[in-house]
Structure formats: structure tokens, C-alpha cells
């Protein structure tokens, strides 16, 4: 991921080079060449996703500067580890500190030693899912972990509770249950020790107020103050990702355009399901950068980038 854009954009290429130097290993090489098993290892996945999101953002900023096109977002938001890229985009963290923390986060999550996993539940709404799993599992052992879009919700829990939930969820109307390739029950209370370790690591980096505000994964609300952002980020790894609430809040505050910077366009697809009236743009390669720039040049103001 990201190689074609890095070949076309000096700014994207420089962002990858900075990631390589910051982390002391070839982030760019893993992003561009794999192998797949390394990209699927959360210790590699998380910094690679953040590096690629920052490279895509760098390419967009470079293109906007060259074209004299203003880029003045009203908010920044990112999904799960993507929130670290969004924090860098909003000036809360330096890009290098965001990469270092994302790398630490990946290592801590991989080494947490907590059994369990995550399953995407397709075709069933959040309320019905919560009712169903609440009837079969102890509180906290099986939870909604990602509220991604209507009919697209991820649950997280122990292996036993995930297995016990399969038949009741199908009986409740779930169309598909898709196990995710993860090493543990992320975004659940089992990850609280990871959040505590991250909070200690937060002491080692500089924090600034967000400009523009960050829409928090934990609350789905815009946040400006660095101290508040830091506290929420420590809770993020053990809390549900409130993506639906985040998008709905931005739309309620007047956002009508979302620009996704990162590999693929998963967040754009989620936004379209949450807010069909919104315009979605994305930057993942030179073709999408060209299309996004064409759209931005037709607009006076671009309200909301979302970093993947």
C-alpha cells in the first residue's frame, strides 16, 4: 500500500522516509512489498496504516499548495489506530510521535496475552446486537467494539462468548458473521492494561491543543483541549469506536464533505451508509488524488478530513 503514490509524490515519499527513520525499520518496505503475513501482524499493521495515512495526507497538502487550493478542515477524525494519524493531522502530536505511539500500541496489543477475538456482524443493527449478546454473556466479556455503519457492527470478546453468540445472532437476523484476523479482543475492557501502559508512554511526548478539533472515537464528540484528548486516547483501546456517532455529529455540525487519507476507502464507504447525503473523497493513490483535487478546486471550503 502507498507505493504508487510515493512514486508520484515527493511529499508522500518523504513521509515514508521519516517513518523509516523514526521507527528504525523499513516501514516503507513492508507497506509497499509486504509480505502479507507481516502486514497482518498488528505490530506491523498499526504503524504501517498510520504511516500510509500520513503519506496520503502529505501528498494532498502538497497538491493543494501547488495548486493554490485552500485546505481548511473543520474537524479531523480517525478510526481506531487511524485516530493517531488524525491527531498528527490536527497538530496534537508530531507525526513522528504519532508513529512511535502507534507502533507501541501495536506491540502492546499483540503482547497483551488476552485470549479472544473480534467478529463483524453484518445486517443487524447495534441495539439488536447489544440485546442479543447481553442475554448470553457476562457484562464486559462480549461487547460492541466498532459501531462502523448501519448494519456493520464489530463485536469483541473471549473465544467462548464469541462462539456462544453465533447462533443467537443469526437467529436475530444477522446476515453474515465474519471473524476478523486479530490477535485479541480489541476495543474491549480486556485491553484496559494496554491503555494504562499507553498513558504512561504519553508522558514522553509533547501534546498540543487540536486545530481543527478531533472527533473522539470514545465519545463521538469534537475535542480541542490536549489534556482531554490525551485522556480519551488512553481509554480508546478498551472502548468501542463510536464511528456512527462521530460522523452523525460532524454532519449535525454542518459537515457535508469528508476526505479520507489512507489505504483504500473503507471509511468513505461507512460515511456513505451513515450519511448518504454527504460527499466523500479519498486519497490513496495518484488517481484518487487527482480526482480529489478536482473536486476541491470546485469548492471554496472542505469541511472534514477523516484519516484512516
Overview of the structural elements:
This protein has 308 residues and is an alpha/beta fold. The chain has two domains: 3-111 and 190-307, Malonyl-Coenzyme A Acyl Carrier Protein, domain 2; 117-184, Alpha-Beta Plaits. The protein has 14 helices and ten strands. It has helices spanning 3-8, 10-23, 27-33, 36-39, 42-67, 82-89, 95-110, 126-134, 159-172, 192-201, 226-236, 243-252, 266-274, 286-297, and strands at residues 77-78, 117-122, 142-149, 152-157, 176-179, 214-215, 222-223, 257-261, 279-283, 304-307. The strands form three sheets. A four-stranded parallel beta sheet has the order 1-10-8-9, with helices on both faces. Strand 8 (257-261), helix 13 and strand 9 (279-283) form a beta-alpha-beta unit. Helix 10 packs antiparallel against helix 11. It is globular. It starts with a helix and ends with a strand.
Topology of helices and strands:
Elements: H1 3-8, H2 10-23, H3 27-33, H4 36-39, H5 42-67, E1 77-78, H6 82-89, H7 95-110, E2 117-122, H8 126-134, E3 142-149, E4 152-157, H9 159-172, E5 176-179, H10 192-201, E6 214-215, E7 222-223, H11 226-236, H12 243-252, E8 257-261, H13 266-274, E9 279-283, H14 286-297, E10 304-307
Parallel strand pairs: 1-10, 8-9, 8-10
Antiparallel strand pairs: 2-4, 2-5, 3-4, 6-7
Helix pairs in contact: 2-5, 2-7, 3-5, 5-6, 5-7, 6-7, 7-10, 8-9, 10-11
Amino acid at each position: 500500500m502507498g507505493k504508487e503514490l510515493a512514486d508520484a509524490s515527493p511529499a508522500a515519499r518523504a513521509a515514508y522516509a521519516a517513518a523509516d527513520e523514526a521507527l528504525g525499520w523499513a516501514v516503507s518496505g513492508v507497506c509497499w512489498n509486504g509480505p502479507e503475513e507481516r502486514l497482518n501482524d498488528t505490530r506491523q499493521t498499526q504503524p504501517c496504516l498510520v504511516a500510509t495515512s500520513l503519506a496520503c495526507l502529505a501528498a494532498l497538502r502538497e497538491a493543494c499548495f501547488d495548486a493554490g487550493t485552500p485546505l481548511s478542515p473543520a474537524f479531523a477524525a480517525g478510526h481506531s489506530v487511524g485516530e493517531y494519524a488524525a491527531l498528527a493531522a490536527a497538530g496534537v502530536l508530531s507525526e513522528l510521535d504519532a508513529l512511535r505511539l502507534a507502533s507501541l500500541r501495536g506491540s502492546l496489543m499483540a503482547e497483551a496475552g488476552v485470549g479472544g477475538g473480534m467478529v463483524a456482524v453484518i445486517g443487524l443493527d447495534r441495539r439488536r446486537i447489544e440485546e442479543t449478546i447481553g442475554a448470553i454473556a457476562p457484562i464486559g466479556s462480549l461487547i460492541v467494539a466498532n459501531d462502523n455503519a448501519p448494519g456493520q457492527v464489530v463485536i469483541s470478546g473471549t473465544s467462548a462468548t464469541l462462539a456462544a453468540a453465533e447462533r443467537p445472532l443469526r437467529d436475530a437476523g444477522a446476515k453474515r458473521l465474519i471473524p476478523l484476523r486479530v490477535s485479541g479482543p480489541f476495543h474491549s475492557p480486556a485491553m484496559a492494561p494496554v491503555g494504562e501502559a499507553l498513558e504512561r508512554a504519553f508522558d514522553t511526548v509533547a501534546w498540543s491543543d487540536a486545530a481543527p478539533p478531533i472527533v473522539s472515537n470514545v465519545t463521538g464528540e469534537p475535542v480541542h483541549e490536549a489534556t482531554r484528548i490525551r485522556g480519551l486516547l488512553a481509554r480508546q483501546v478498551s472502548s468501542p469506536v463510536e464511528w456512527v456517532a462521530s460522523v452523525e455529529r460532524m454532519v449535525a455540525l454542518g459537515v457535508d464533505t469528508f476526505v479520507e487519507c489512507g489505504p483504500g476507502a473503507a471509511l468513505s464507504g461507512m460515511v456513505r451508509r451513515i450519511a448518504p447525503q454527504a460527499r466523500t473523497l479519498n486519497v490513496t493513490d495518484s488517481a484518487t488524488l487527482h480526482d480529489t483535487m478536482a473536486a476541491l478546486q470546485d469548492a471554496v471550503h472542505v469541511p472534514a478530513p477523516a484519516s484512516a
